Amino acid sequence: MTVTPVHPAEATTGPEIELRSRITVELVDHAASDIGVVRAARVSTAGERAHREERGDDYIGGLIRYLMRSRHGSPFEHNYMTFLVNAPIFTIRHMMRHRTWSFNEESARYKDLESVFYVPDSDRLLKQEGKPGHYQYVPGTEEDHELVTTSASTAYRAAFREYQRMLDAGIARELARTVLPVATYSTVYATCNARSLMHFLSLRTNRADATYVSHPQREVEIVAEQMESEFARLMPLTHAAYESYGRVSP
Ligand SMILES: Cc1cc2nc3c(=O)[nH]c(=O)nc-3n(C[C@H](O)[C@H](O)[C@H](O)COP(=O)(O)OP(=O)(O)OC[C@H]3O[C@@H](n4cnc5c(N)ncnc54)[C@H](O)[C@@H]3O)c2cc1C
Question: Is 132 part of a structural domain of the chain?
Fold first, then answer.
């Protein structure tokens, strides 16, 4: 959505900004399959033949479950999935903590950033109660949502105005960008293998049935959920085994 100025002082001077709640993940490339896991594992006993073996789902599923259960993780590394993610910088920062992934991100040194900023949508739980590590999230009122949108858009508009002011004066992009908030949208290419994706999912989704329950921020969980549905589609037997053994990466 595009918002009109909300703060009286900004009414005539604020630049146009876009407030966005949508976080998107697109699978742009992959080489990932359940049979690939089996072939990688089978090389230990079948040697060269492993690469040409055809196997039915019962065999593939059984071997994958065995590998998952006994935490033989390396056969799950011979594949890749590349995702194009459009998300606020604070969410991309969460993603980038995962060191076994490869990333390439839009550069704020080499291009002007667009005036697109994150605001939570009306379903996002707004209030936290309790201690760090044990927070409960509860819905906000309509007024709370209005406050978040108003405060955020006032700050974003002021930040973007100063960013533009510096760019217009010829200040280098790498310095002008320092005033922009972590809610600014960015785009990243992110590539992982199934083993590193399972580790990411175990930490970045909140599932009560997991062996180790994690409490990620909702925005990175939205990224993880979209990645998980692609993973389940490409590698259904691996995904099923991951679910059966408590969502622990092997
Ligand atoms: C709910 C939640 C809250 C968090 N809060 C904070 C916070 O307050 N502050 C903060 O700084 N971070 C925080 N993090 C990030 C967290 O500490 C990890 O950096 C992030 O989850 C990546 O996980 P990882 O290190 O296991 O895995 P990855 O980087 O994805 O690596 C995968 C695995 O490879 C191995 N590995 C990778 N690098 C090394 C290495 N150098 N040495 C040994 N083994 C290695 C480990 O086995 C690791 O589990 C939080 C994460 C979550 C999910």
Answer: yes
Is 52 one of the catalytic residues? no
**Assigned domain for 248 exists:** no
Distance CA 212, CA 170 (A): 51
Give me the number of domains the chain comprises: 1
Mutate to test the pocket of ligand 1, among 76, 96, 98 (most ligand atoms within 8 A of CB): 98
Q: Is 100 in the pocket of ligand 1 (CB under 6 A)?
A: yes
Q: What is the dihedral of CA 213, 214, 215, 216, to 10 degrees?
A: -150
Report how far ligand 1's centroid is from the alpha carbon of 61 (Å).
Answer: 30
In a domain, 100, yes or no: yes
Cα separation, 186 vs 86, whole angstroms: 6
Lowest mean pLDDT among 43-47, 88-92, 98-102, 158-162: 43-47
Tell me the pLDDT of the chain averaged across its residues.
Answer: 93
Q: What is the pLDDT of residues 124-169, one digit of tens each?
A: 999 999 888 778 899 999 999 999 999 999 999 999 999 999 999 9
Instruction: Give the domain range for residue 129.
Output: 8-28+80-192
**51-85 tens-digit pLDDT:** 888 899 999 999 999 999 999 999 999 999 999 99
Which atom from ligand 1 is nearest to the alpha carbon of 101? 30
Please report, for the domain that includes residue 100, its CATH number: 3.30.1360.170
